[in-house]
Amino acid sequence: MKYDSGQLLFACDLSGTFVFAIEGAMAGVIANLDIFGVLVLSFATALAGGLIRDVLIGASPPQSIRDWRYSATAFLGGAVVIFLYQFIQRIPLTVVLAFDAAGLSLFAIAGTTKALTFEINPFIAALMGTITGVGGGTIRDLLLARIPGVLRADIYATAALAGSAVMIVCRRLGLSPAVSGVLGALVCFTLRMVSVWRHWNLPKVSGL
Amino acid sequence: MKYDSGQLLFACDLSGTFVFAIEGAMAGVIANLDIFGVLVLSFATALAGGLIRDVLIGASPPQSIRDWRYSATAFLGGAVVIFLYQFIQRIPLTVVLAFDAAGLSLFAIAGTTKALTFEINPFIAALMGTITGVGGGTIRDLLLARIPGVLRADIYATAALAGSAVMIVCRRLGLSPAVSGVLGALVCFTLRMVSVWRHWNLPKVSGL
Amino acid sequence: MKYDSGQLLFACDLSGTFVFAIEGAMAGVIANLDIFGVLVLSFATALAGGLIRDVLIGASPPQSIRDWRYSATAFLGGAVVIFLYQFIQRIPLTVVLAFDAAGLSLFAIAGTTKALTFEINPFIAALMGTITGVGGGTIRDLLLARIPGVLRADIYATAALAGSAVMIVCRRLGLSPAVSGVLGALVCFTLRMVSVWRHWNLPKVSGL
């Protein structure tokens, strides 16, 4: 069977979109928003990272505007929360964190890969992967008038950046895009989960 | 006389821009900003919705950057508030709400129409119309470090989405763009005003 | 020696980027963020103004995405703060204000010049210069969930707008781009510093 990198990436992207849509919608329910507000947050959380990346790398119009399956997936995630909220809120925190870390990894790898396709410098491509991963949550926090988690939270964006960098280094070393992507995603996921489990944090400047 | 859809749209767009510029400037005065801050809010409220839409659908550079009449209209709205604040603040709330609903309807229809022109999928085109309508007020609220009204407020974005959807359905049913636009705008305007009058709200997830 | 306007602009742009990166990182340290958060703020403050301008004028992908030296400069500014915080916090406020005013002037002139190169209307080009100058600080304030200084603070964006306008008028009067740029920057810098020294403020609408 022939391996199709594009389809794999697309599957990653939609899976990440779905996970982040559910998280955004949950934040909306917790903030006591009405149904429309919940859907706005599920769209913003699921799609903003990719939208910002596409605008920055010059992929115009952005993929999630051209392809209705992105909006449909974001909508589906919001609808799942609206109709199954009682079930979803009982999911244990560890599972939620694992899904979130998976979404972050998928988005970081998909974003970096896409930036490389657009012939963006590898250093900046890793930043674009990171923005893809953390952009949605940042917009969600801004809409809720909170300081974005990415500025405060332990090792989150750092994990996305590390995963993106590992992927780029692996490709430079001659590994295939698929293998490099899987390794990058594993690094991002593992780093994120271990940092939560071990309560790792980045140092503050005052502590240096 | 020959009917010119482009000119009609342009007139709608500038009227909406003027109404939203006045609203933005009023928010600035109420937040006790200086004159420049008031003008920034009038520009942001009047132009941000269209700017975001144009960036998303790939209309580059955005219309309000290419055409100085948009900035001039936004500036005029701000100047009207600065010089005539005493009069404007006496306008009854119902009239303000009606003008706002009219601006929302004009922007929703103009935004949806433009997205369709750029061959955006109809489902997403309706979302683009909604963003055009609510984007300015959302940026205004973000600048004032408030949770955007679109996440909380009764039936507002919902009205824009409904109007956009009605317009698209009408065009699919074979009605002319002009008639479809008028019907969509009427639906948006009526839904918004009736929801204010009747204190309609969307349900919350906890109440489902 | 042949004068090269492009290189001069590039030097201005990188100098402004460095100054703003340091300011952004300092804001991050003061807000008690971890190292990654500090770097995010240095990138956002240094690059957002130019990114927004480039997206708006249709320079796609934006210069700071295409050219790694922008990110590297922003990173350098952040790293300087992280490693030399003890020294930087002892810099007297007047010096900080002077550097900030210099960065504002450089960005306003560079932004206006670039917008003119993209054949943007002069009135809007001056606005683009202003956005280049104040955009980074605005995004920084939004990320920290504060009302942006540009809406409140004395004569800041006004100075950027005045400098941009002076540059455009000088070019219209037939002065060379270089001379016009220097005059515009001087106006912006002087207006900003004098307004700080004299505690000048723009009037509020209630006081008109």
Report what the structure shows.
3 copies of one chain form a homotrimer. With about 210 residues, chain A is an all-alpha fold. Chain A has one domain. Helix content of chain A is about 80%, strand content about 0%. Chain A contains 9 helices and no strands. Chain A has helices at about 5-30, 35-55, 65, 70-90, 95-115, 120-145, 150, 155-170, 175-195. In chain A, helix 1 (about 5-30) runs antiparallel to helix 2 (about 35-55), helix 1 packs across helix 5 (about 95-115) and helix 5 crosses helix 8 (about 155-170). Chain A is globular, with a radius of gyration of 17 Å. The mean pLDDT of chain A is about 90. The interface between A and B is medium-sized, with 31 and 31 residues.
Distinctive features:
globular; homotrimer; about 80% helix; mainly alpha; about 210 residues; 9 helices
